[in-house]
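User: Show me a protein chain along with its predicted structure.
Assistant: Here is one chain, sequence first, then structure tokens.
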Amino acid sequence: MAAPKTLAEVLEALPEEERIILTLSYLRQMSPSEIATLLHVPEKSVEAVIASGKARLTAQLGL
């Protein structure tokens, strides 16, 4: 059986854009609106990435 993955390992495996958005959201505690402005992308796109990324992290970490 493989050892459980760490948060750092799971984040590193994500596509760059998803990793950046999740890092800004959860670690920097930026709002979707702030992230959208910073990255010049639609706020709805940021919200979608946060939702799907959270689900992916949860599944990968076995939570």
